[in-house]
Amino acid sequence: MTATATTTSLRGAGRARTGRRGFGAMLATEARLWLREPGTVFFALAFPTVLLLGVGFAIPGMRDPITGAEPPWEGLVAIAAFVPIVLAAAIATPALTTMPVHIATFREKGVLRRLSTTPMRPQAILLAHLVINLVAVTVAAVLALVVAQLAFGLPVPESTGTVVLSFVLAVAAMYSLGTLIAARASTASTASAIGTLVYFPLLFLSGLWTPGPMMPEAVERVAQFTPLGAAAQAMTAGWFVQDFPTLQVVVMAAWTAVLLPLGVKLFRWS
Amino acid sequence: MTRTTHQPDGGSIAVEVRNLRKEYATKDGTKVAVEDVSFSVRRGEIFGVLGPNGAGKTTTVECLAGLRQADGGAVRVLGVDPQAHPELVRSTLGVQLQESALNDKITVAEAMRLFASFYDAPADTAELLRLLDLDEHRDVAFGKLSGGQKQRLSIALALVGDPQVAILDELTTGLDPQARRATWELVERVRDRGVTILLVTHFMEEAERLCDRLVIIDRGRVVAAGTPAELIDSIDAGRTVRLRVPAGETQRAEHILAGLADVTSVTTEGREVVVVGTPRMMLAVERALAEEDLVPDGVRTVSRSLEDVFVHVTGRTYDPDTGAESGAGTTTRSEGARS
Question: A177: Cβ–Cβ under 8 A, 6 or more apart, which residues?
Answer without folding.
Answer: A95, A96, A198, A227, A255, A259
